[in-house]
Specification:
about 90 residues, mainly alpha, 3 helices, about 85% helix
Length: about 90
């Protein structure tokens, strides 16, 4: 489930970069970026707690790093898309 949530966050970021240029469904892409940020943030919160376990595997460290990167990508894409929508409406 955690890998699926992480994959969903990354796919949202990929969908932003491929579909945002068309401008057809920017609101849907923005909503999916925000949803991906929520899912990725939840995975990040769950995985950070495991880092303080003394017998922490490298899988948890990789998952935490991947979730953090996906969250950053989705946050930047949401901010960029919101700025484009503001310019389009003005």
């Amino acid at each position: 489930m955690i890998a699926m949530a992480h994959g969903a966050g990354m796919m949202t970021g990929v969908a932003f970069f491929t579909l945002a240029k068309g401008g057809k469904s920017m609101n849907k892409i923005l909503a999916s970026a925000i949803l991906g940020m929520g899912v990725t943030g939840a995975v990040l919160i769950l995985s950070v707690a495991q880092l303080f376990n003394p017998s922490s595997d490298t899988v948890w460290k990789i998952l935490t790093a991947g979730s953090a990167m996906a969250f950053v990508v989705l946050a930047i894409s949401a901010l960029t898309l919101r700025r484009r929508l503001d310019k389009k409406t003005n």
